[in-house]
Structures are given as structure tokens and as C-alpha cells.
Specification:
The chain is mainly α. The chain contains seven helices and three strands, in the order H-H-E-E-E-H-H-H-H-H. This is Zinc metallopeptidase.
């Protein structure tokens, strides 16, 4: 009976909902970014220049701002204290580019000030990576074998996948806080006019939806695993 769970079942609807949410969020952020990447800031400051100014304003001099390939691949790496800005951000003077650069600076400030959620998320990384990689193999073993240890494999798989879900949930306050820091920094520095701040908030708000969608998708996947495990017990 265990092989039934390897075929189609009604819980796939949860996966499809998660995929739809992620696609909609991705489409939204790309659309908003494209719109405001064509709006040049009045200051004429590039993403790199804005990032360097915000870092200095926060007393951070040991973070290197560098150009990385790709589109919206911007990130801050706490391991080597580098702030990577993508093709659409590094040399662009658009409102969108400055907003994204400021957001990544928000992460650098979090790191410099020991922001607790960021530290917790960092500690979760190895556990979450291991959990997401090994969870399904363990659950599949539990579904196909007929022994008392089957439920142990399933429960362990669900527990490990829960770590990956927790990582997605913890990511939310980290990203929201980084965006808030970005907006505050841009307002205080005077790099952007009030109307440009509003446009920047639209870009960062759309980006935040991608993290919400990812967390929702992970939660739906976890719910699916719990339902499948429950069915196996009743089999």
C-alpha cells in the first residue's frame, strides 16, 4: 500500500498552490523592479555609491561592495563581509537600484550590530540545508517499507524538513527589518526625494512578497508531508 503515496494524490494541490504563489510573487517583483529601474534618481547616485555612503554612515568600513553577474542576484555575505550588487544595481542610478543596494546594506548593518534574528538564521543554515536534502529520501523509505521502523523514518523526515521551514519563517523578520533599515537610511541621508522614497518602498515591498511566498510554500509542503504521514499510519 505504501507505493500509493509515490503516485498521484490529492495533497499535490498544496504543492501547486505553493508554486503558484512563488510564481506570482516572482512576476510581481520583476514587474515592479523593471518599472522603477527606468526611473533615474534625481541625485544621479549609483547603487554602488549609495551602498558605500550608507555603510560609511553606519560606521562600517570593512565591507567590500563588488559587482556580481546576474539580475536581482544582490546579496550580503557575512562570511567574507562582501556586498554583491548585480548588473541592474551596481552601476545604475535608478530608484530601484538604490533601494536594492540600501536593502543589502541593511543586512550588513544587521551583521555589524549583532541583530539576533540574523544570527539565528545563520545558525539554521546547515541544519536547514541538510534537512531539505535528506527529508524526502527518509519519508520515501518510510512509505515503501513494511516494518515498525517505517514511522520512525517518516517522523524523522518531517522533523528535518521542519528545520527548513523554520529557516524560511525566520527569514521574514530579517528581510522586513533590512527593508525598514534601508528606507530609514535613505530618508536620513537625503539621497532620495519623498516621491522616490515611495517608489523605493514599492520595490522593496514587492521583493518582500517573494519571501512570504517562499515561506507559505514551505509551510504547505510541510502540511502535505504531515498528511501523507498520517495516511501511512492509517493504512
Amino acid at each position: 500500500m505504501g507505493m500509493f503515496y509515490l503516485g498521484y494524490d490529492s495533497t499535490y494541490i498544496l504543492v501547486l498552490i505553493g508554486v503558484a504563489l512563488c510564481l506570482l510573487a516572482s512576476s510581481r517583483v520583476n514587474s515592479v523592479f523593471r518599472r522603477y529601474s527606468s526611473v533615474r534618481s534625481r541625485s544621479g547616485m549609483t547603487g554602488r555609491e549609495a551602498a558605500e555612503k550608507i555603510l560609511r554612515a553606519n560606521g562600517i568600513y570593512d565591507v567590500t561592495v563588488r559587482h556580481i553577474p546576474g539580475n536581482l542576484t544582490d546579496h550580503y555575505d557575512p562570511r567574507n563581509k562582501t556586498l554583491g550588487l548585480s548588473d541592474a544595481t551596481y552601476g545604475s542610478a535608478s530608484v530601484a537600484a538604490i533601494g536594492v543596494a540600501a536593502h543589502e546594506c541593511g543586512h550588513a548593518v544587521q551583521h555589524a550590530t549583532g541583530y539576533a534574528p540574523l544570527k539565528f538564521r545563520g545558525a539554521l543554515v546547515p541544519v536547514a540545508n541538510f534537512g531539505s536534502a535528506i527529508a524526502w529520501p527518509l519519508i520515501l523509505i518510510g512509505l515503501v517499507i513494511n516494518s515498525n521502523s517505517a514511522f520512525l523514518f517518516i517522523d524523522l523526515g518531517i522533523l528535518l524538513f521542519s528545520a527548513a521551514v523554520l529557516f524560511q519563517i525566520v527569514t521574514l523578520p530579517v528581510e522586513f527589518n533590512a527593508s525598514n533599515r534601508a528606507v530609514n537610511a535613505l530618508e536620513k541621508s537625503g539621497m532620495l526625494y519623498p516621491e522616490e522614497i515611495r517608489q523605493t518602498k514599492a520595490v522593496l515591498g514587492a521583493a518582500a512578497l517573494t519571501y512570504v511566498a517562499s515561506a507559505a510554500s514551505a509551510i504547505l509542503q510541510l502540511l502535505r508531508l504531515i498528511i501523507i504521514g498520517g495516511r501511512r499510519r492509517n493504512d
